[in-house]
Amino acid sequence: MQNIKAFLANLPHLPGVYQMLGEKSDVIYVGKANDLKKRVSSYFSGRAKDAKTLSLVKKINGIEITVTNSENEAVLLECNLIKKHTPRYNVLLRDDKSYPYIVITTQHPFPRIDLYRGQRKKNGRFFGPYPSSLAVRETISLLQKLFHLRTCADSYYEARNRPCLLYQIGRCAGPCVGRISKTEYDKNVKMAILFLEGKSQEVIHYLHQLMEQASDELNFELAVHYRDQITRMRQIQERQYVNVAEGDADIIGLSMQAGVICMQLLSIRGGQVLGSRSYYPTVPVNTEKEEILSAFIKQHYLSHPSHFESIPKQIIIDAVMKERKLLTDVLSEHAQHKVEMVRPLRGDKKKWLAMATTSARQSLALHLFSKTNVEERLLALQKALELKKIPRRIECFDISHSMGEATVASCVVFDPNGPIKSDYRRFNIQHITPGDDVAAMHQVISRRFKRLQKEAVTLPDIVFIDGGKTQLSAAHKVMEELAITDVLLVGVSKGPERKPGFETIHRLNHPPFHLPADSLALHFIQQIRDEAHRFAITGHRQRRDKTRTQSSLELLPGIGAKRRRELLRYFGGIQGIAHASLDELMKVPGISRSLAERIFTTLHDATL
Fold first, then answer.
1. How does strand 124-127 pair with strand 113-116?
2. I want to staple 200 with a disulfide (CB 3.0 to 4.6 A). Which of 237, 329, 335, 497 is the partner?
3. pLDDT tens digit sequence for 33-52
């Protein structure tokens, strides 16, 4: 920008929205501010900025501003402009669909139940919103089993002259051909509405009354039907009911791995879990967690007027939001009820947040390991490493220990279909100096490839080593010893403060280099490296815990289960044995002098 100082000098101290423009006058970033002059000027001040902001400022070729009456209005305008322009430096939630509801029609004598999207109308009872159409269809299927409500269109209903298949399999009461009276059908509709409102206990109480009434009238077949409904309702109630204030809440879990973000939205309405849904927003590199959550909340709830009705009374997140008051005020204004944003530290809400976060982590793992995703990343890896062909098999090695204790190495394997978990291997590293990662890497590579040569199996195209030049050299030395020349060795060392996106790639006879933080190839390398680390650290913890809980007597040759039992019974525990003299040890039945000496020297690390 030619006259940035003049431009900044004329900015007003008013709330509004600013749009950063690129070289082709395209919108590259949209932001909002309570004070436009202060906020926009901060981008061009001499203060230290994060990598994302520095990259943005270099690309700015123009700025447009829009003044609003309040910061609340600016939030809504910002959301709409992001949706319209999809700027590359904003967090983008690509989801334009209106949220699905369950509708029970009211204009027909025999109401039907169906999925509905769009602005809610007056000719029906609406329940939701549900996080996905799958959750709606599952609930409708459940209601059909419980209350036998029809799902057919009115035109189909009017044309029937005999029961359909749904009647024959017990999913519909058959009102179209008079198989149920209006009074009985209305009872079913009433119970379905109570269930959808979260009043399951009232439904169960009502079914109890009907069961007793049928029993008194000696209609035992109908009484059994009501009994089965009660049993099924109790099972559903145990599975679905949660204790949330006001009964309405959205819980947002977040997981980041290999350059991909997964947001898991768990929806609770009327005290019942309606389901969950995964979102994968487009996120610029080096974006902070708070900014991601803020952008998701704005775009999820405020991107369309039809979404306002879906705003819950509570939004549970795992972050301290600087904009919390502003966001809750805007959401409350459009939802027409008070909205709270909570970060729980204990209790049930903390457990539900942990569940949402775990679900996000699992959904992200499935997304990363999908075949399509892996194929794209393999192509990017081929280009980044300048390979002649796409690698068909990749192995990655990592070392894990605690200050040299219980060292375990891992080997994970990937092919074009993703991870091959049946080929994963762990190696207990022994006979090295504790904490010597280079020696550990030499040992695991040697053991692995000697075995592969012995079994005459296909060798990997690429081997990733979690480490720098020294670990890479150790692996290369093994390959020379085994005369293996057609395996590409690549070292991956962590960036400063182990921050993702700053890894250094090492290759033999090549200078170290960095891949762009948004590179698919780098994301794939991170994904493989993280999987190797996860597998190694799990094995290390298991080995460490087993070692720490193992009795020192179990390590002594000649001391079987019977003699251990006698020693423990005589001295009352391992501490009593450790403090016993040689003569006292010899008094234990079955313990000879030579065995007593062996126990004494082992426990006291001494010689006699």
1. unpaired
2. 237
3. 999 999 999 888 877 677 78
